[in-house]
Amino acid sequence: MSMIQLHSYSKKHDPFPLRYVLCINYNFLLLSFNSLTPIIRMTSGTIMNPPSGKFPITKICVLLFITILYAESFSFLSSSSIFKFKRCSTNSNYPKSNNNKTKEVVPNVSWFHDEFVYEPEECDFSNGKWVFNSSIKPLYSDTSCPYVSRPYSCVKNGRVDSDYRYWEWQPEDCTLPKFNPELALKKLRGKRLLFVGDSLQKSQWESFVCMVEWIIPQKQKSMKQGTHSVFKAKEYNATIEFYWAPMLVESNTEFFIIRDPKKQIVKVDSIMDRAKNWTGVDILVFNTYVWWMSDIKVKALWGSFANGEEGYEELDAQIAYNLGLRTWANWVDSTIDPKKTRVFFTTMSPTHTRSADWGNKDGVKCFNETKPIGKKNHWGSGSNKGMMRVVEKVVKKMKVPVSFINITQMSEYRIDAHSSVYTETGGELLTEEEKAIPQNADCIHWCLPGVPDTWNQIFLTML
Q1: Cβ–Cβ contacts within 10 Å for residue 82, how many?
Q2: Could you tell me whether strands 283-286 and 342-346 are parallel, antiparallel, or unpaired per DSSP bridges?
Q3: Angle (CA) 211 215 220, round 5°
Q4: N or C terminus: which one in the chain shows less Cβ crowding within 10 Å?
Q5: Closest C-alpha to 324, from 360, 294, 288
Q6: What is the arithmetic mean of pLDDT over 362-383?
């Protein structure tokens, strides 16, 4: 192995101990052809008689080098631990939290090197714990970012306690990089990113926009809001968009023409009126879950609403969900070119409407909860594993690759981070009297900044 090869090898694998490398470097030019010949003969299988007289230091070094090289090589190839150890390579200068209190985190777009290595098969971000870190400084607030909707603006709506903003997700087997806005915009340069789904997906979109918009000069950004909302970063020729489609397929309640969930009828085979707005996009992020859980049964209809709403069938939620997702999957497979568009699916966001799930038998929903659940692998009644299996089975059969942004388990712990009573109902903020009633707590949606920011940390890393 030449010195150039040695340098290449040491960059790709764990470095050799310094003393061996120094030994080889020091003696490399001193080696004569005669002293190398017996070594070559030995390695090629020829029996070599030991030379008479003193054994030169150069030969000792070379022999030692070959011994170490082969030992290191076989150790590297045969070790099974490398397949078990999960690691995400990140910039070593990036702050890591190992204790409850860490070095102060200041928004600084120079934190990251934008070529860190991420291997999704080696990193399970969903397995970990929430660690309190009082030095965290969120990249935005609901007062600094003008795009946070009122239902998620907990501080503006009167929430006084702030601990829920200082918990950071710490995966068990790898490091989750902080969200770097400049890196995010670089990755999106010349691209369209579109979030499609319900109000929980909308909060993820708002979180993403808020985490990048503050580094963009005012004249270099714009926002258009509606059913199809578009945030534009002009300097980067990038858009971060959201399309309202809470069930992905059509229903008669999604635009609140009919507000009673019990009168909801879902067209499980119809998606084109919505999906025609999802083409020509570089990155698609879908979600749908909570709207399918409004009742045990779902009224499913085939055909057009123009033909009337009679003739629907009442199906179990999982069966209807499966039919709707298959319609979505067929559209993706028949329309999306995986060479041009990446497709993601955000797993279900847990609801916390039953306090007995986490042992608070005297509580009501998530009202007045101020700390995450500490029990590892907690799983409450607000996350339906059967529905998750439906998504998994549908995606497995698809031709176009779909990557899961797995947020469910990590979000299960966060009973403290919902909008609770610091929200609105019917377009009006809750009054102080209404805030005192635990049943009014919204334990579905999340405060911003908050848990959806962590979802986007994972999403950016996957990009």
Answers
A1: 11
A2: parallel
A3: 110
A4: N
A5: 288
A6: 96
Per the CB < 8 A criterion, the answer to whether 266 and 251 are in contact is yes
Round to whole Å and give the CA distance between 345 and 66: 50
Confidence (pLDDT) at 157: 96
Sign of the Cα torsion 302, 303, 305, 310 reads: negative
Q: Cα separation of 337 and 322, whole Å?
A: 23
DSSP assignment of 139-178 equals: S--TTT-TT--GGG-TTTTT----GGGGEEEEESSS--PP
Place of tokens 């200041």: 106
- Tell me, what's the pLDDT at 33? 36
Answer positive or negative: Cα dihedral of 360, 127, 161, 450.
negative
In angstroms, rounded to a whole number, what is the distance separating the alpha carbons of residues 448 and 450?
5
Domain segments of the chain as ranges: 3-79, 130-462
Asked whether the predicted pLDDT for residue 40 surpasses 50, the reply is no
Looking at the DSSP bridge assignments, the partners of residue 429 are 424
> Could you tell me the two tokens for 54?
């003193």
What's the CA gap between 48 and 243, in Å, rounded? 75
Token readout for 29 is 């030019």
Residues identified as active-site: 199, 442, 445
Q: What confidence score (pLDDT) does residue 306 get?
A: 53
Select from 430, 411, 347, 414 the least CA-distant residue to 156.
Answer: 430
Rounded CA gap, 61 and 68, in Å?
10
Whole-number percent of the chain with pLDDT over 70: 71
The tokens for 286 are: 């879908």
Task: Give the separation between CA 387 and CA 40, rounded to whole angstroms.
Answer: 64
- Residue 147: CB atoms within 10 Å: 17
Amino acid (1-letter code) at residue 343: V
**How many CB atoms within 10 Å of residue 377?**
8
* pTM of structure: 0.75
